[in-house]
Design goal:
Rossmann fold, dTDP_dehydrorham_reduct, 6-stranded parallel β-sheet, 41% helix, 280 residues, alpha/beta, 12 strands, EC 1.1.1.133, single chain
Length: 280
């Protein structure tokens, strides 16, 4: 039996698609069924269930709000993965959880490898780093997968924001000084599932191929939907956001690709498939 936490989000929804297709039994939970920030609730939930794999798709992802809402951010991003890893350890289950490119400070000019030293700039980034460190320290049958700029059909994301903005505005300005790789939650789930089946535990990076600025991503999605407005460039400093973002945080996925023996699709290909899924 597989347990999915955060099952209603982008990644959790796509994992359910894959497991349904593979005809694999799973339990899908979100906060209403299981509060993963409550250690006792996790322990009680596991009683009488033969859970072999735990896939933690739950997270606190509001980067700016986290600067003020740090307590719940740390509970979800640091404490909850640790509690789930401890539960997995007791039963010998495989544990999978996710981290972020925001563990890096963005000062590098080449894609970040798993061996690069983290230096998060925000509370969100620090909470994720502490979560991944806690899991890897306590349990050696864990996968920690860092990813970036996730978008999927099941929730709001940068793509949906841009589409909504385009409906209300004839002119948009998007930052061109944040560079990473937009990552399709479906591809993240597919490659994670491959990795889980390999049984090669540890820390991995997974993002779609090539890199883009937020401006590049917006331009591509707006062209896909046929928007006729004017798109301009902006800088991060123009918006005075509470949380600092890394300027460059593209992840190097070579380790994962070599492990599973398959290349991750380019981000533009991922956006193409996402737009088809949106059916707009």
């Amino acid at each position: 039996m597989i347990l999915i936490t955060g099952a209603n989000g982008q990644l959790g929804t796509d994992f359910q698609k894959i497991l349904n297709r593979e005809k694999v039994d799973y339990i899908a939970t979100d906060v209403d069924e299981l509060d993963i920030t409550n250690k006792n609730e996790i322990e009680n939930f596991f009683k009488g269930k033969n859970i072999k794999i735990i896939i933690n798709c739950a997270a606190y992802n509001n980067v700016d709000k986290a600067e003020k809402d740090s307590e719940i951010c740390y509970k979800l991003n640091r404490d909850a993965p640790l509690y789930l890893a401890e539960a997995a350890q007791k039963t010998g289950a495989v544990f999978v959880t996710y981290s972020t490119d925001f563990v890096f400070d963005g000062t590098k000019s080449a894609p970040y490898k798993e061996t690069d030293k983290p230096n998060p700039l925000s509370i969100y980034g620090r909470s994720k780093l502490e979560g991944e460190q806690a899991v890897l320290k306590i349990y050696n049958r864990s996968f920690v997968i860092r990813t970036s700029w996730v978008f999927g059909i099941a929730n709001k994301n940068f793509n949906t924001q841009v589409i909504e903005w385009s409906k209300k505005n004839e002119e948009l300005k998007i930052v061109d000084d944040q560079v990473s790789s937009p990552t399709y939650s479906y591809d993240l789930a597919v490659f994670s599932w491959m990795l889980i089946n390999m049984g090669t535990f540890g820390l991995y990076h997974m993002s779609n191929g090539s890199e883009a600025s937020k401006y590049d991503q917006a331009k591509y999605i707006l062209e896909k939907i046929g928007w006729n407005g004017k798109l301009g460039r902006a800088k991060s400093s123009d918006f005075n956001l509470p949380a600092e973002r890394p300027k460059y945080s593209k992840l190097d996925s070579e380790k994962l690709e070599k492990t599973v023996g398959k290349q991750i699709p380019d981000w533009k290909n991922a956006v193409d498939r996402y737009v088809e899924e949106l059916n707009i």
